[in-house]
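We emphasize that the prediction below concerns an isolated chain of 707 residues; any contacts that depend on oligomerization or on bound cofactors are therefore not represented. The input was used exactly as deposited, without trimming of termini.
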Amino acid sequence: MNSLSIPVLNALSAREARPAPVGRSTAQLSILALGCGILVAAAGCRGPAVVEAQAAAAAEEARVQRAVDDRLRAIFPEVQGELTRAAILRALLAGGAEESGTDDVPAAAILSIRRGDYDLARGQLGELVTAEEVAKAREFLARDDQRAAVLVLDHAVATAPDSAELRLMRGEAELALAQQTGDLEFARRALADFQEAARLRPGARAALGASRAARVLGDADEALTRAREGIEALAGADLALPGDATPERVWAEAALASGSRSENSGLERETRTALYSAIARAPEDPWAWRQLAHAEFARGDAQSAQQISGRGLALFPEDAVLHATLASALYKSSGREGIIAEYERLAARNPRSARAHWTLGRERLEAALDALAAGKPDARAFRAAEADFARCKALADASKDALAAECAEESAFCRTGLGWSLLASGDLDGARDAFLSVDDAAKGRLSADRAPRLESGLTGLALVGTQYVARKNTRDAAGIVALEKAARVFDYLHEYERSNARFAALAAESNRDAAIAIEIDARALTSAGKIDEANRRLARARELMEKALAAYRTAITLAPDDARILRDAGQVLTNYLQRDAETARGWLERSVLLGKTRAERIAAERTAAGAGEAARKFARELEEVESLLSDAYQILGVLDLTLKGDPVAARAWFEKCLATGPDPSEEVRGPSGWLARATDAIESKRDTRVRDESRWAAPVTAAAKKP
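Result of the prediction step, given as a token string:
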């Protein structure tokens, strides 16, 4: 055995023994022994002590020694004669062996030794010992299984604690795991690994890794300090980092995280320098363009922000952040008109940019809303904005971009705004059509608002229906048409929100009023001899009254304690459809009960309020309730007289009606009123129940024509 090998093996045996991973070849052990022996001889190396368990058997030791000699001969062919330590050192100093660019670990270790970097060589030889673990870790990292990679690298680092490369690998895996899970313990471990790697092998990769870990931990000062170290160590060279990040971006991210730039002009300049450097390194990364444009805008330089955003958009025409910054910069310098003018040019230059059309549409919509709020409704502006969003949606749909949904929603708001503009201009039909089309643009958006400047289309549609009702005139054809339009609007609202008691009641009332108006018109047609047309109109009146009853039933279910709805529903059954007397009586009697309870409460509150405005308010409320009670009593009288044939009970209700209401109806107290008819029926004992031919809206015959 030569004079070199025994000291090498003895030195290894003297170290704390660690078991080698299963499957390590004798050649690998020999190379490890060789490398550590060289380090011991050249620099007093305390390299990694990785050996087979204690002393091998004599035969195995001889075999290992032969492998060592063979490997030494292969590495140092220039050494003639006995392979002594002195002979190898002379060869190293003479640079006899060529430097190799190979990834072979022993060759790399030898190269480090020749350069005098013994710590690096020790780490590289440690990597050889952990080669299998490293390969497994890389497989896990390729599958994005960071947790498994960390477990494998834990063992590798324990085996070769002086390997900077292993520390860097584990640090990267730990940092990725921290970012994935939010577990800051992994970020702390990553920072410790990067710091140790920097101690073992100072350089850009370790410093930049430490910066990223510190930033995850929220230590902005440490992040910036390490980023500066990394950039200085990099000295302009290229370095690939995980996630396609660049060193300059790490520096910029650390600078951005380091507090307010307005309080530190030096930091502000450094941030901008870092961002410019990031763009120079990787102009294909939109992040740096966004951040630089925002930084310029934040420091008040709208012109620079505009220029940078514009240049960024030349590379990334669909970047939403750059579009937003450009729009903000334009607004600051030239207002909304400036945004619209510039984006008209942008959309013309790049007609395939969905984001350009989206921004143009949004600004036109905002301008139209401003005009509407100022009392200057501009229907054309809402239509122009919707056209922009329609173009945006078509382009986004073609590219399967989620922006398409945003365009649809904005189109819906354009239609809502159009409806309000037309309503403000008195165009009820146009407003109705605009509101009814909102859900065609984006389902469910009719009920959406943009408070405080734009109420929902649902609210607008209800107002359209109310204004149709305000135009009613039962003796005017246009008025009847308006009532029918109102009924259709409220029918739509009732179907749209089946749980809305107010819409149900409005649908019932509008159908009832339209039916009454049509029935009156049909009687006029009968008098004119237009029997067929009259019967068509009467059939329409009966149809609408049935719809009114159905809506009232829903309203009662939704609002069972609304005395007014109960009264009106009872009236429809009693006065118009003239059937289901017991159902009608139940609704009317409950209305009376609720009304009387409320009247008693209001009377007590009025007494407690004494004099003044509060007392007058309670007095007005009491009049309203008493009027409702008076109406209910009248309808109950009509029910007993015409549906039950009981004029005695009917007269009692009519008398109660006159005693209750603040302004008794002529219908009840007049010479031919209900009270007189009930009295006459009592005296004459005639049957007062309604006959088929005299029912409300009953079909007419030619004999009904007046001579």
